[in-house]
């Protein structure tokens, strides 16, 4: 059996705004867009950027190899970074309008029907229109939380103002919230009551590490209840999307959150584990298997691990409910991320489903149904776009 899902819809479950002010890029700028490693050099203004050696290494990054191949096919040019960048710049034509037409063509080609956008920008900001399809917005509640932690003198007041901020964001049209529990405090959360948080609030403001974690976990616990009340999802960063200055990757393992959730208190709150917990992808699948309110999202894993994505997808689809798996790009700035994520995921999905049918493990009908669910329908259902 050989499937072809190239014409299926794709939902980009996690994206960021695009660099609409960069109609022309150099080869180095293009490569830098796909760097999630160390920024070891500094320019004359002190800003960090990848070293020459690191940029040259990016030429052989699997993500870049795949993208150059896709773009060379699209433009009918030589399969080199230089050639595809030249063709890309020519296609855009040096204008913002050219960018919009180029991006629109990419989304149309891969049938990218909707996106979930994370950004600090307010609802309705013109730059959020850079995504040329239906957009669901995530509210970055931690921006408010950490600002309140500096200003407020009690946990009660902080929580009250934070909850008001989230409720207001939902009234504006935000469909979910986004946080970084793993990077801030570790996924090994534990139950902290509001009274306990109040007692260590002063120390948390002073920077005491354990007090800081306790107050954050107390806030997180209460916010999960609020999400259930407001009927919105919470999206949390899991795994590693790059090492740079953050080497606490083992505390980002999604399975560490299991004890905190095991009593079922937060089963009414849909929790989206972003980035598939990579490199702990199997553990993310185990969490979705054990908790019916947990979704595994593959943004940034797609397309950065695109050459190996079929293996990851097959493993997760072998464990997690097919109704709890979603895809995305995690793209930052560059225009081709969602296009490459959609393209490579459909290729991987066809390979996985063909193998499962050939092995007698799924019927063709069920394989096609699961493919549609994962490629777009699960996310669209979560955000109320379809019943």
Keywords:
globular, 11 strands, 12% strand, 387 residues, two-stranded antiparallel ribbon, 17 helices, TIM Barrel, 8-stranded parallel beta sheet, single chain, 2 domains
What would your notes on this structure say?
The protein has 387 residues and is α/β, with parallel strands linked by helices. It has 2 domains: 285 residues, TIM Barrel; 69 residues, no CATH class. Helix content is 49%, strand content 12%. The chain is built from 17 helices and 11 strands. The strands form 2 sheets. The chain has an 8-stranded parallel β-sheet, with helices on both faces. α13 packs parallel to α15. The radius of gyration is 21 Å and the shape is globular. The model has no long low-confidence stretch (mean pLDDT 94).
What layout of secondary structure does this protein have?
Elements: E1 10-15, H1 27-32, E2 41-42, E3 48-49, H2 52-58, H3 62-75, H4 81-92, H5 96-109, E4 112-118, E5 134-140, H6 141-151, H7 155-172, E6 176-179, H8 181-184, H9 194-199, H10 201-206, H11 209-230, E7 233-237, H12 258-261, E8 271-274, H13 281-290, E9 294-297, E10 299-300, H14 301-304, H15 309-317, E11 325-326, H16 337-358, H17 364-382
Parallel strand pairs: 1-4, 4-5, 5-6, 6-7, 7-8, 8-9, 9-11
Antiparallel strand pairs: 2-3
């Amino acid at each position: 059996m050989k499937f072809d899902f190239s014409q299926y819809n794709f939902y980009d479950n996690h994206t960021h705004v695009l660099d609409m002010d960069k109609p022309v890029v150099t080869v180095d700028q293009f490569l830098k867009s796909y760097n999630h490693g160390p920024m070891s050099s500094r320019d004359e203004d002190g800003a960090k950027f990848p070293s020459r050696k690191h940029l040259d290494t990016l030429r052989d990054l699997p993500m870049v190899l795949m993208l150059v191949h896709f773009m060379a096919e699209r433009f009918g040019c030589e399969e080199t970074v230089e050639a595809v960048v030249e063709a890309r710049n020519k296609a855009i034509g040096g204008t913002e309008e050219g960018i919009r037409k180029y991006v629109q063509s990419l989304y149309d080609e891969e049938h990218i029907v909707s996106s979930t956008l994370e950004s600090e920008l307010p609802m309705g900001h013109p730059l959020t229109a850079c995504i040329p399809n239906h957009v669901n917005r995530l509210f970055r509640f931690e921006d408010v939380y950490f600002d309140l932690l500096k200003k407020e003198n009690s946990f009660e007041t902080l929580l009250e103002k934070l909850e008001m901020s989230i409720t207001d964001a939902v009234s504006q049209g935000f469909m979910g919230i986004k946080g970084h529990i793993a990077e801030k405090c570790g996924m090994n959360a534990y139950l902290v009551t509001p009274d306990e948080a109040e007692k260590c609030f002063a120390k948390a403001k002073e920077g005491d590490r354990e007090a800081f974690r306790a107050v954050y976990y107390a806030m997180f616990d209460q916010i999960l209840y609020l999400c259930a009340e407001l009927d919105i999802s919470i999206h949390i960063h899991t795994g590693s999307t790059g090492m740079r200055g953050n080497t606490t990757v083992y505390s980002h393992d999604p399975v560490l959150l299991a004890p905190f959730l095991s009593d079922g208190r937060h089963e009414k709150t849909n929790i989206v584990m972003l980035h598939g917990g990579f490199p702990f992808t199997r553990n993310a699948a185990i969490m979705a298997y054990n908790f019916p309110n947990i979704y595994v999202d593959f943004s940034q894993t797609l397309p950065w691990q695109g050459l190996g994505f079929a293996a990851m997808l097959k493993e997760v689809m072998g464990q997690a409910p097919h109704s709890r798996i979603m895809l995305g790009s995690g793209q930052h700035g560059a225009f081709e991320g969602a296009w490459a994520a959609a393209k490579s995921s459909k290729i991987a999905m066809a390979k996985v489903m063909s193998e499962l049918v050939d092995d007698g493990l799924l019927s063709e009908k069920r394989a096609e149904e699961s493919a549609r669910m994962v490629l777009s329908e699960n996310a669209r259902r979560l955000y109320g776009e379809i019943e």
